Automatic annotation (TrEMBL):
The lineage of its organism: Bacteria, Bacillati, Actinomycetota, Actinomycetes, Pseudonocardiales. PROSITE patterns: ABC_TRANSPORTER_1, ABC_TRANSPORTER_2. SUPFAM superfamilies: P-loop containing nucleoside triphosphate hydrolases. The keyword Transport applies. GO terms for biological process: response to antibiotic. It comes from Prauserella flavalba. The keyword RNA-binding does not apply. One of its GO terms (cellular component) is plasma membrane. This is Multidrug ABC transporter ATP-binding protein. Pfam families: ABC_tran (PF00005). InterPro entries: AAA+_ATPase (IPR003593), ABC_transporter-like_ATP-bd (IPR003439), ABC_transporter-like_CS (IPR017871), ABC_transporter_ATP-binding (IPR050763), P-loop_NTPase (IPR027417). SMART domains: AAA. PANTHER family: ABC TRANSPORTER ATP-BINDING PROTEIN.
Length: 304
């Protein structure tokens, strides 16, 4: 499988502020690749440098083998982009905006079909200034797709959309990928990452701290099983920490949380019964992508 996007040693500063530092990753053709991280971690700057919207101070970017900063015209024909900070003239209508973008593309998609797919048919004649936040977001995604791009950048694509509209957007993006596009998705929604992304890069303080599949992150950093129970006054948390398979024990507001392997769940249950703690409201759940993400962010911040 060929490489759609290659980023190596990317560094970008704004004055004395280092936005991204030694960022590197590759995206395979046909992949949906996620960029996640706290606010200000460098996600948008990385995406903008990869599209030649900002010139990095150092590093290398290749889009299907082409340098986007040296051959901007050629690369722009390959890329579709929905930016986090986008706007249009207040008076332009939805239909006019789509037609304008389509007129610049050598092989645009069907305009009415695209407008309908993104739930904007009823707003085709509406001015941009009259659209809600969610409607504007859907319009910007539609505009990113009008030219049939091979590589699509979506920055906080579903921010402002209601739950039903978010799920419909996911379905449409999966269809865009099925039609052959490669997608770089910048998001802070973990359910979106789990649903859509083949792999994901976690950025903290301008640096990538992990690249893996969502399932891989959960398995390695999500804490395995999570057990929560009401904390009896006499319960010895030191004894819990000594149990086989236990990775971490925390106590907050009278609730004990034990993270560990499946083995720790069995050991904990036996330990509680032997000591007569039978009514603790014990609840077991599996570690989530959010757990893995928060663990990575916390560890990276401690090291910095």
């Amino acid at each position: 499988m060929s490489t759609a996007l290659l980023v190596e040693g990317l560094r970008k500063c704004y004055g004395a502020v280092v936005a991204v530092d030694d960022v590197g990753f590759d995206v395979a053709e046909g992949e949906i690749f996620g960029l996640i991280g706290p606010n200000g971690s460098g996600k948008t700057t990385t995406a903008e440098c990869a599209q030649a919207l900002r010139r990095p101070d150092s590093g290398r970017v290749r889009v299907f083998g082409v340098d986007p900063h040296e051959q901007r015209g050629a690369v722009r024909r390959l890329i579709g982009s929905q930016l986090q900070e986008s706007t249009l003239p207040d008076r332009i209508t939805v239909g006019e905006a789509v037609h304008l973008f389509a007129s610049l593309a050598p092989d645009p998609v069907d305009e009415p079909g695209l407008i309908a797919e993104w739930g904007l048919s009823a707003k085709r004649g509406a001015a941009f200034s009259s659209l809600s936040g969610g409607q504007r977001q859907r319009l910007f995604v539609a505009l990113a797709l009008v030219s049939r791009p091979r590589l699509v950048f979506l920055d906080e694509m579903t921010t402002g959309l209601d739950p039903a509209a978010r799920r419909e957007a996911w379905r449409l993006i999966e269809r865009v990928r099925a039609d052959g596009a490669t997608i770089v998705l910048v998001t802070h929604f973990m359910d979106e990452v789990e649903r859509l992304c083949d792999r994901v890069a976690v950025l903290v303080n301008g640096r990538i701290v992990e690249v893996d599949t969502p399932a891989g992150l959960i398995e390695r950093r999500g804490g395995g099983s999570v057990v929560r129970l009401s904390a009896p006054a006499a319960l010895d948390t030191g004894g819990l920490r000594a149990l086989p398979g236990v990775a971490d024990v925390t106590c907050h507001d009278g609730v004990i949380e034990v993270r560990g392997s499946a083995r720790s769940v069995t050991a904990l249950g036996h330990w509680l019964v032997v000591r007569g703690y039978g009514d603790t409201g014990l609840r077991v759940s599996q570690g989530s992508l959010e757990d893995a993400y928060l663990s990575l962010v916390a560890a990276a911040r401690e090291e910095s």
